[in-house]
């Protein structure tokens, strides 16, 4: 990452709020949770439980987990739901157990399931059942016990692991998945996750005693865009961008020079607040004076945030 500075601007201390200093009541409505989903409920059900626990009107999840699957589920809270497009393309990592239908060596066939593979979504899926290409970055056998194989797989979003195991089984005499846990989504890992009970208890303690334990569980909405190209704008440009106007170079303080045309990018204020998601209108290494750089697509920042 390389930053290009166009002007040395200092933020107005009377405007905005550094994300780490937001009052808890604002953080709850402008944050994301890394929830440790348990086996049983659907992802939609889990989101409903979160809304009830935190007394919210709106929440949403990124990356559905089947009812029996556990692990990392990113939940956006209230206003942070607007940032969902930034979370939908994250790579995923899982640990699971497959049971072989007969004694067989799996190692020899794994090379056929690395890199780009073809998958047809299972019958019980929320997408159209047509063949599509997905990437498997890593597939590691962790442990073998008779016909039970513990494995770790890192893959592109939208990969069906149950289908992957089934396809591997077709080459070795049959196999099916018995357990699966998502251990990461992008840079969000199970080490950053919390159970619903932990979140609920921390929220109730905050309401009763003012305890700020809830702060470590709810991440500022800005955390959802760490992987995106970033543009920092001057205070004088905030109002126009917040109203959906195209951002021109005159309104920029600094930017990353690795942004490509049509990239989804994050527009930040000088205080480090996420103002908007936007579509890049140019390759930033080709940027010229007085030229358009980005078109806002979703305005994130609220005056009260």
List keywords for this structure.
305 residues, 7 helices, seven-stranded mixed sheet, Alpha-Beta Plaits, Archaeosine Trna-guanine Transglycosylase, Chain: A, domain 4, ten-stranded mixed sheet, single chain, alpha+beta, 17 strands
What's the structural blueprint in terms of helices and strands?
Elements: E1 3-5, H1 24-27, E2 31-37, H2 43-54, E3 59-62, E4 70-77, H3 84-87, E5 92-100, H4 107-110, E6 115-119, E7 132-145, E8 148-155, H5 161-172, E9 175-185, E10 188-189, H6 196-209, E11 218-220, E12 229-233, H7 235-242, E13 247-248, E14 252-256, E15 264-268, E16 274-280, E17 292-299
Parallel strand pairs: 4-9, 12-15
Antiparallel strand pairs: 1-14, 2-4, 2-11, 3-4, 5-8, 5-9, 6-7, 7-8, 9-10, 12-14, 13-17, 15-16, 16-17
